[in-house]
Amino acid sequence: MSLHLWLGFLAATLVVALSPGPGAVLSMSVGLRHGYRHALAAILGLQTALLLQLSLVALGLGALLAASENAFLAVKLAGAAYLVWLGVQKWRSPVGEEGASPMDEALKSGFYRQGILVNLGNPKAIVFIAALVPQFIDPAAPKAIQFLVIGITMFSIDVAVMSGYALLAGRFRNRVRDRRAVVLQNRMFGAIFVGAGCLLAGASRH
């Protein structure tokens, strides 16, 4: 991959990463409630799914998902259902008098898995990758090395952007420790997750 192609891909990746989506919502939600250390687990889960999706594209399977209406629909509905479930769990999360939730410790162990499932449940992501990445592949150069460079670039940019979202949200963490603020935060992010799930359920392949 030439420097010119790589810079073009870098710019495209940055624009996509900065666009708000379920991954950004998850990063901000965890960063605000639990701090950056736990948000990083969710962010690494998002990247695990992202690299898996890129691997499928490299193997030519991304185009199959884009072409198969049934496969796209199945992944889309599963992803939408998971986002709605996350939203309902967030909305209903019990809060103690001091703002602490009995579910907090259990939730902390599952942020990495949540990150994976949030990204894997979005079929438009792999369709987008399948449409974007080939434009920056030089057919005259070894593809394996190019996909490696692309993977490292996507991973680095997305980690940086999601970390920015989480750290920004974390700056307000001390202001949402009382019970009323925690309840409001839970319901706000719960509603956003449910809304994201509904939007995904209505999304098309194009």
From TrEMBL:
Record key words, sorted: Cell membrane, Membrane, Transmembrane, Transmembrane helix
GO cellular component: plasma membrane
Subcellular location, record wording: Cell membrane
TM segment ranges: 39-64, 71-88, 144-168, 188-204
Single GO MF annotation: homoserine transmembrane transporter activity
Bilayer disposition of the protein: Multi-pass membrane protein
Similarity comment text for this entry: Belongs to the Rht family.
Name of the protein in its database record: Homoserine/homoserine lactone efflux protein
